[in-house]
Amino acid sequence: MNITKFQILVLPLAILLVFSIISIGLVESAYRSHNRVKVGCKDLALTLITWDQLLPLVPEDDIAENEHQLNENDVEPDLYQDIIDRHINDLLDDIDKCDLDDAIEDMVEEIDPELP
Q1: Number of domains in the chain
Q2: Which side of the chain, N or C, has fewer Cβ within a 10 Å radius?
Q3: Residues 54 and 79 in one domain
Q4: Listed residue (49, 51, 40) closest to 94, CA to CA
Q5: pTM higher than 0.90 for the full model?
Q6: Shared domain check, 78 and 27
Q7: How far is 49 from 109, CA to CA, in rounded Å?
């Protein structure tokens, strides 16, 4: 088999081009979908239940300090109540669409999305 200088030059460039196209496609698809995450209903329910049970145990001073840190680092929203209003309530709305065990569903229904 006779390999020419042209083939020696073109083959690595073609391989590089293929890898570039594939990697651009992977990065682009990951970039487009970075705002969405799939989470199981039961995982979300148990996370919300745990959050609801632990939040009252956090001292008010710690909450104020965390809100201050969020504000200092330009994280929006920086107030816990705003985070609850924007995100926790959305998650509670989403979990209503789930088919959960009766015991878990009862615990989710008892979640109070307000700060203690």
Answers
A1: 2
A2: N
A3: yes
A4: 40
A5: no
A6: no
A7: 10
